[in-house]
Amino acid sequence: MKIQPIVEGHGDVKAFPVLLRRLITEAQAWGLDVGRPIRKPRNQLVRETELKRAVRLALLQPECSGVLILFDGDSDCPAELGPAVQGWAVAEAGGVPCEVVIAHREYEAWFLASIESMLGYRRIRADAQSHPNPEQPRGAKGQLEARMEAGATYLETTDQPALSAKFSLATAHQRCRSFRKLASSFGRLVRSMGQEVSEWPPARWAENG
Fold first, then answer.
1. Angle at which helices 177-192 and 10-27 pack, to 10 degrees?
2. Which of 18, 39, 84, 190 is the most core-located residue (most Cβ within 10 A)?
């Protein structure tokens, strides 16, 4: 039984399964695994015909029991765009559980929210501080790079998966509305896939950074 992701970026292809497996572990949803993400450009994921084509492809993947779509919000408002994309996806999924999450503004905002959990890791400076409003700035990748050692460059295909394995889920949940949306969508998805999840999100996320 697998969650089949659909994602936007090359970094997401490697990073999102890492994050989903962390969520599976947190939820103790031991019967689940994660399929290799299907990557589609963002401009396709926000168009009904192309989005539905991606969902059909997801349903053809081995052991697909649920579909989770993730892409960056950029300048769009997730509260406006998300329901439209969710409607298209659900209509095409034909009863297979399907959820859409839009990272506001970028996936890397979740790292900006919890930088203290990664000090000294992947060239992040030992004195780096989290952004006071991590989902506000455009260019979250640049903001993250500014918190790295002098001369270091953020490399999406290697740094994003590594940081996805390290950042504090609790802090991101506390500080990022779009990460809370990911958590709630994940919970709905796995329950719809027949997994028992007694407490979600974990109560300790509200207590520990």
1. 70
2. 190
Beta bridge partners of 28: none
How many helices (H) and strands (E) would you count in the chain? 9, 5
CB 112 within 8 A of CB 81: no
- Hey, is 91 helix, strand or coil? helix
Q: Which of 191, 186, 203, 188 is nearest to 5 (CA)?
A: 186
For residue 195, give the nearest of 22, 86, 65 by alpha carbon: 65
pTM for this predicted structure: 0.97
pLDDT in tens, 42-101: 999 999 999 999 999 999 999 999 999 999 999 998 999 999 999 999 999 999 999 999
d(CA 77, CA 166): 28
Report residue 185 as tokens: 């969508």
